[in-house]
Design a protein that fits this description.
Blueprint lengths: L22 H25 L6 H12 L1 H16 L7 H24 L1 H5 L4 H25 L10 H25 L5 H31 L7 H21 L12 H42 L1
Helix pairs in contact: 1-3, 1-8, 2-7, 2-8, 4-6, 4-7, 6-7, 6-8, 6-9, 7-8, 8-9, 8-10, 9-10
Length: 302
């Protein structure tokens, strides 16, 4: 006779602990909150019957311009700190991107290239190419330099690391773009919120391209010498397309001169870019990781 204890319930399987911050989840949370705040700002502006002074408009615009950064700090940066294996130097990448955008990116686009002065009346194809080779190459190359000389390759252990660092660089760059807009424009809260959300989403959507290509360069056997330049040109082209379609093929530019309709259309383009690029690179990363695991198992069994 056995006196071993009888289990009245089946033993529960231990759940696997994921040691890293889930990059896509936190990014989607931040984007969802930003869009909700944007809708609230637009609705309040539309139904508020009082008047706001220029100082009050400016104060709101500045506060909303730094909202994406605050959301990133709360959900991504602090979330990283709570992970079992946090990614290092994430805040440094964001800060370096802020400095690069403020010292090089914005002055180069506005004062050296002066794109609005010669592209505002150009044809659609000329505008796409012009914005891609000026604005697109400038901002994506600066993000690449920040990641390349601060965290690559030593901090790139997985393809998701590339996305995490690219989002950090993009949110830093977007913060400077947003502040540059609100400091040079007196807009109602709804318009300011729409433009800030649009600029931020475009930066995040396009920015992950260089993070993915840098991660592939570190982790993939198939990445060649033209891998990173190809990624840069692809990201720049998407930037040119987004800017051109945002302002329309005839009227408008990258400056803050669009009307409410243009701002809504621009936000729609930004949301579309986020949806398409996030879904595409999520699929590519999962597929590449699965191939890597399969290759490792094959080599182990030989």
């Amino acid at each position: 006779m056995s006196f071993d204890p009888i289990l009245l319930a089946p033993q529960q399987e231990e759940r696997e602990v994921f040691p890293y911050r889930r990059v896509w989840r936190t990014a989607l949370i931040e984007i969802a909150i930003l869009l909700v705040l944007t809708v609230i700002a637009v609705l309040v502006t539309r139904f508020y019957t009082g008047t706001l002074t220029d100082a009050q408009r400016g104060l709101f615009s500045v506060a909303f311009a730094v909202t994406p950064l605050m959301l990133w700090i709360i959900f991504s940066y602090f979330g990283e700190r709570r992970a079992l294996l946090p990614r290092e130097r994430l805040f440094a990448v964001m800060l370096l991107s802020v400095l690069a955008a403020n010292a090089i990116g914005i002055p180069l686009v506005e004062r050296v290239f002066a794109v609005d002065e010669w592209l505002s009346t150009a044809s659609g194809s000329s505008r796409i190419l012009g914005y891609a080779l000026s604005v697109g190459v400038t901002q994506e190359f600066l993000k690449y330099l920040v990641m390349r000389y601060s965290v690559w390759p030593q901090a790139f252990h997985s393809r998701s690391d590339g996305i995490a660092y690219a989002m950090a660089a993009s949110i830093g760059y977007a913060t400077v773009v947003n502040l540059n807009y609100v400091f040079n424009t007196i807009a109602d809260p709804g318009s300011a919120a729409l433009h800030v959300a649009e600029f931020t989403l475009i930066q995040l959507a396009v920015g992950i391209i260089m993070g993915y290509f840098l991660a592939e360069l570190k982790l993939s056997r198939d990445a060649g010498v033209f891998w990173v330049p190809g990624g840069l040109l692809f990201a720049a082209l998407l930037t040119g397309l987004a800017i051109t379609f945002r302002g329309g093929l005839i009227v408008g530019g990258i400056g803050p001169n669009g009307n409410a309709s243009t701002a809504f259309q621009g936000l729609g383009i930004a949301i579309f870019l986020v949806a398409v690029l996030f879904a595409s690179f999520y699929f590519l990363i999962n597929n590449a990781d699965e191939r890597s695991r399969g290759r490792s198992r094959t080599e182990f069994t030989r």
